[in-house]
Amino acid sequence: MESWPATKGESEREQSAEVAVIGAGVSGLAAAHMLRDHELQVALYEREERVGGRATTRARAGFCFDPGAQYIHGNAPVSDALLLQRFATSELVSIAKPVWTFDSQNRIREGDPRQNALPRWTYRHGLLTLAELMARELTVYTHCEIARLAYMRPGWRLFSATGQVVAEVPAVLVTLPAPEAAALMAASELPPGLQQALLAELGRARYRPLLSLALAWPRKALPPTPYYALVNSDKTHPISWLAREEEKSPERVPPAWTLLIVQLAPDYSRAHWSWDDQALATATTTLVSALLGQQLPAPHFYDVQRWPLALPEPERLLDAETLHRVSAPYGLFFSGDAFTGGRVHLALRQGQESALRLLASRR
Question: Name one Pfam family in it (predicted).
């Protein structure tokens, strides 16, 4: 990976790739590998410092935790092939304990035995490990936001936020969340009719916000539990997810400490979005105390991650066939969670499917 601007000469940088992938989340990374397997030159452009999107990891105060996606579902052909074969590593672990459920009345029950029988994959030092492994073999430019596209009949010119020409390529794959993809299309120079059609389709997607908190206490304050995590079953609790990071691997926390990941429900997140981090930590501690039936003191450490576009609403997912019917003839393709929801294994599969769609268009 290289931070933009790269050290290559301008002409080499503009002409070296056949496909530009905008966004280096796991969907874009999976697509890039599929395209490279078919001998296409690919460059990925990522506005953030790191790859992975919501499949990321933070390290703070001696703790290592995943503030976004929590694990990767097993028994899924595409992700199993990537995790267990192509990018196999001793860092990969299966979470041993099950996921239980709770309702709006704080009643905790055992979870679905069929779901709990499936592997839940993660990595000893964080879910970001997968994205970093995938990025090693790819050309990835970080700190590089693509702000505008221009169709060149054929091909595409990509511009940075400062108006710099970043690349000229025959094909583009956009893997941004649908609202960000729509903003990019609105700012771009597109063929007549294409912009309106794309904005209409991308505009159908709706996303939910998410406040994700990491809260740490001495382990004596929270005794061991028979579960790894709790998930709200009736969708009416302020908390949607609670998990113990040390159950993923002991390397995640210092000795004698416990770290909870608490992800708040969309409505609660929306209503408390502007609260400062300390107020959120205090309010969330109160919610956790009520759920677990014990009075917890103020956490010794807390961290807050705000995800404004965390999860697409399932009833508003986009249809890939409909979108690509209008975009594919121009060498413009899309992938990401707007088509599948927020699961990592689905994003990996969607990335490969979009790459195959792009490859088919070149025949």
Answer: NAD_binding_8
As given in the structure block, the two tokens for residue 32 are 């890039």
Residues 6+ apart with CB under 8 A from 196: none
User: Which domains are delineated in the chain?
Assistant: 2-53+132-204+317-361 (3.50.50.60), 58-123+206-312 (3.90.660.10)
CA dist., res. 254 & res. 276, Å (int): 26
What does residue 324 show for φ and ψ, rounded to 5 degrees? -75, -15
The confidence score (pLDDT) of residue 5 equals 72
Record the tokens describing residue 248, joined without a space. 């993923």
Q: Rounded distance, CA 216 to CA 231, Å?
A: 19
Q: So what's the pLDDT on residue 289? A: 98
pLDDT, position 125: 96
Q: Which residue has the tokens 């899924």?
A: 76
Of residues 175, 181, 146, 141, the one with CA closest to residue 160: 146
Sheet with 72-73: strands ordered across: 72-73, 120-123, 92-94
3-state helix, strand, coil in the chain (%, to 5): 35, 30, 40
Lookup result for tokens 């409909």 = 322
Amino acid at 151: Y
A 10 A CB-CB count for 361 gives 15
What is residue 136's DSSP assignment? Answer: T
3-state secondary structure of 93: strand
Residues 6+ apart with CB under 8 A from 289: 295, 296
Measured distance CA(85)–CA(299) in Å, rounded: 40
Question: Rounded to whole angstroms, what are the CA distances from 282 to 147, 232, 238, 279, 302?
Answer: 38, 20, 14, 5, 10
Q: pLDDT by residue (tens digit) across 300-316?
A: 999 999 999 999 999 99
CA distance 172 to 358: 9
42 φ, ψ (degrees, to nearest 5) = -125, 140
Residue 152: CA count within 13 A, CB half-sphere: 13
- Count the alpha carbons within 13 Å of 336 in the hemisphere toward its beta carbon: 28
